[in-house]
Amino acid sequence: MDKKIINIGLFGFGTVGKGLFDVLQKIKPDNVNIVKVCVRNVEKHVPEAPELEFTNNADDIFNDERINFIVELIDDAEAAYDIVKRALKAKLPVVSGNKKMLARHMNEMIQLQRDNDTALLYDASACGSIPVIRNLEEYYDNDLLISVKGILNGSSNFILSKIFNEGMNYAEALKLAQDLGFAESDPTLDIGGWDSLFKLIIITIHAFGVYVQPEDIFTFGIGNMNEHDIQFANEKRRRVKLVGWAEKVGEDGLVLSVMPHLLSKQKYIYSVEDEFNGVVIKGLFYYKQFMFGQGAGGFPTGSAVLSDITAQLYDYRYQYKKLQSPHQLQFTNDYKVRIYYRYDTPATLNLLNFSTIHESYYSDTYKYVVGDIELSQLQAQADKLRESDVFICIYPED
Amino acid sequence: MDKKIINIGLFGFGTVGKGLFDVLQKIKPDNVNIVKVCVRNVEKHVPEAPELEFTNNADDIFNDERINFIVELIDDAEAAYDIVKRALKAKLPVVSGNKKMLARHMNEMIQLQRDNDTALLYDASACGSIPVIRNLEEYYDNDLLISVKGILNGSSNFILSKIFNEGMNYAEALKLAQDLGFAESDPTLDIGGWDSLFKLIIITIHAFGVYVQPEDIFTFGIGNMNEHDIQFANEKRRRVKLVGWAEKVGEDGLVLSVMPHLLSKQKYIYSVEDEFNGVVIKGLFYYKQFMFGQGAGGFPTGSAVLSDITAQLYDYRYQYKKLQSPHQLQFTNDYKVRIYYRYDTPATLNLLNFSTIHESYYSDTYKYVVGDIELSQLQAQADKLRESDVFICIYPED
Questions:
Q1: Which ranges of chain A does DSSP label H, i.e. alpha helix?
Q2: Interface residue B268 vs chain A (CB under 8 A)
Q3: Which of B15, B132, B139 to substitute to test the interface with A, most A CBs within 10 Å?
Q4: ipTM for the complex?
Q5: Does residue A128 come out as left (phi exceeding 0), alpha (psi in the -120 to 50 range) or beta?
Q6: Shortest Cα distance from B110 to chain A (angstroms)?
Q7: CB contact under 8 A, A294 and B286
Q8: pTM of the predicted protein model
């Protein structure tokens, strides 16, 4: 391997950007440097790393001739889009951490990489410190995958762990997650399942070679879960986990969803606790593989970003092989799932047309059904369901 | 990626070789073919795959101009050594599944790769279907690793699972493992810990950049475990697992061992059951990562071998970066461990000089101590311990 030097222009200095800096300070590699950092508020960040050069002008990065690598770790998806696009067009290799931007613009990002013969890597974005994408790209490339199921969001999983293991209520658990820095002050992205959704979309491209728009995938978070739901899960000796799920169905169908699942102890992801992430990959040859690791925090994520960066030292690129496969799967919501549905009024019950009801309970304060329903129905009513006082969980029989 | 065609000369057509053939039959890739297979007994294998060309003469493989890739999947370590060496010298890329050969000749194998500018890959050899080596090479290359602990042998783990989950006795469990094809008719390699040892040596090279000879590492299997040991574990609510363990100690020390461990439920590898393998990687930045998957069987291992083969399509090679690191760890057995030691006579108790005894039990039929002892002492008495009717388990306090 020739001795390349990676000179980074870094965008963003939040938890992950600062984490990358801290990791570099610890291991002091002789071939990776941060040359300049672009942030919105220079004054705020200078004291955190006085040895770094900060700017609030993206041009200062792109016009710096020393810089041969862009790392984008900012929150704003639209700004991230502009930065990554500009970098790729300038034929600079890029590492991006912005899941929302990647999930939304993946087709264009793949095209930009091809047109400009340069690499965009984002393993760190998809599952914190678990190298899911690279393993799907390189190691499971020959297997015929059946499903990928994962706990993809550390913050919401932390909250669920505190509720189910330590008996906290939802508000206490959310507050603790925020105090510990595992949840944003606006937790909608995590709690509502959106962060998991973006990751699922990215993973699905590499696992199944199918790109699906976020709007088309049924997404329901844990924000509506109440004490009745928790009690229901406990009585059934299950735990609620927020699960991103992609599965081949029938001859060439592919279903995707982000929803709470009522998981029994036999499931691997039942035991994924706190801010950890875990992914179960099922394939025809491998049966089951399970990968598990920290999904949040400056060090794990900063270090995962560094792995994406140093992959450039040996010219690593995603190949997107499965997108070109002649046997393309077709995304569909025509698939029946068994759910637990807690509702508040007859009107919210009537939002959904169950094909079978297995269980039904009714009282003044708590009403639910367990029944079979098409994912397409849930998706058609998604906005109304999210606005109502209802809770939905996949409730598998096993 | 240019359209390379891999034309394989295959050595061996046992479970893994046949598994590779079956996987290729299923996915029918257009760039990977088996051209010819060298086996000891041609007549035996022809009916299993009439479409393949078999030979019992290695020269028929090496003189076949169509063949541009060697896959070695035979049991005999010395023959494997000759084949792999000859292939590398002929500048052919090689995939090898022979852990024993690799563990014993790793230095020479690395040198042969360099001298002949060709690749030797062996991820499939180290942990069945879990891509441990590639992840250590590519993804954890920047992390400062603390430890790698794993269940590396599917056969012995299958036996332990049947004993601890289904109450079988040792003989029944071994028989079942043999009937199901998870254990060899001579199970010494699996049960005695030697298979795990070879894998641990290979993993340690990629995890810590240190190569240690098999003879220098304390290795003790599960063959001596009796009903008292099983009862002891059950009473303490622990399970016995055969664990390969590498850990950085002190400033620059590295300890290695293959031994049974008495694991409590909190440990990730406690839950690795049946023929599965599981590895926990601890690093300074990532905290803990856990990878888990099938460790035996034709399909999973055949598919893992195919992943090693297709890695050649993008010229993948192990870099052995950590072997060249300026901060080399030193292998040592000067490290105290807490063990459960069941012995039969005062003479076998006196084989070991415990620095502290935490617990001691004595009856006519069952005698044990729990105490602290240097690994170097265990290693000094290793042959005698293996020949005596004693059982040894790491017994951590937590």
A1: 15-27, 42-45, 58-62, 77-89, 99-116, 123-127, 132-138, 154-166, 170-179, 188-191, 194-208, 227-235, 298-310, 346-349, 375-380, 382-387
A2: yes
A3: B139
A4: 0.83
A5: left
A6: 15
A7: yes
A8: 0.89
